[in-house]
Amino acid sequence: RAENTIQPRIEHIIADLLEAIGESPTRQGLRDTPQRVARMYGELFSGVGLDPKDAIDAVFDEESADPVILRNVSFYSVCEHHLLPFFGSASLAYVPNGRIAGISKLARSLDLACRRPQVQERLTGQVADAILTALTPQGVAVELEAEHLCMAMRGIQKQGARVVTTAVRGEFPDGRWDGNSLLALLRRDS
C-alpha cells in the first residue's frame, strides 16, 4: 500500500474524530495528534497483507527431533472489535522434522501476525500455521496469554483478567511427542 496516500487519509479521519468528540484538532496539545496517530497506525498495522510464515526465513537442515521451545515472548496487538490494544506473553514449541528455524524468526513471525487488527484466537492459530508451513515439523504448539484493554478500561472493566488461547498443529508421527506434551512443556516453570 502506498504510505503517502494512507497517511493523509488517517490524519483527516483523526481530525474529524477529535471534532466529533467535541475537541479542536487545532488546539496546541492536539495540533500534531492526527499526524502522530497516522504514523502510529502505520506501525501498528504494518502486518496487514503480509504472511507471518515469510518472517521465518532462516531455515536450516538439522536432524534433531527434540522439541524447540521459546517462552515468554512479549507481544502487542490491536483488538479488531474496539481498536484497543491487547498484550501479553507467547510461548511457542515445535518438534523438528529435519528442519529448524533461526529462533528469532519465530518471534518475528509472531510480531508480523500481531501487526494487524486481530482477535487473540486467530492470532494464536496464525502463528502455529506459520511455523507449520515454514518448517513442516512433526508438530507445533502455541500458547498466548493476554490482557485486553477493551475489557479492562471499558465495558466490564476487569483489569488484570488474562485470556489464554492455544493452538496445536501437526501429525507427531514418531509418537515420542504429542500436542498435550508440547503444551505441558510450554507451561513448565523454568
From TrEMBL:
Q: Which SUPFAM superfamilies match?
A: Tetrahydrobiopterin biosynthesis enzymes-like
* Record-level Gene Ontology MF annotations: GTP binding; GTP cyclohydrolase I activity; zinc ion binding
Which leading EC class covers this enzyme? hydrolase
EC numbers: 3.5.4.16
- So, what pathway does this thing act in? Cofactor biosynthesis; 7,8-dihydroneopterin triphosphate biosynthesis; 7,8-dihydroneopterin triphosphate from GTP: step 1/1
Q: Does the keyword Hydrolase apply?
A: yes
- Reaction it catalyzes: GTP + H2O = 7,8-dihydroneopterin 3'-triphosphate + formate + H(+)
GO cellular component terms, semicolon-separated: cytoplasm
Q: Does the keyword Hydrolase apply?
A: yes
Q: Which InterPro entries match?
A: GTP-CH-I_C/QueF, GTP-CH-I_N, GTP_CycHdrlase_I, GTP_CycHdrlase_I_CS, GTP_CycHdrlase_I_dom
- Keywords in alphabetical order: Hydrolase, One-carbon metabolism, Tetrahydrobiopterin biosynthesis
Report the residue ranges that make up the GTP cyclohydrolase I domain in this protein: 10-175
Q: Name one GO biological process term.
A: tetrahydrobiopterin biosynthetic process
Task: Return the similarity comment.
Answer: Belongs to the GTP cyclohydrolase I family.
HAMAP family in alphabetical order:
FolE
Protein name in the entry: GTP cyclohydrolase 1
Source organism (scientific name): Geodia barretti
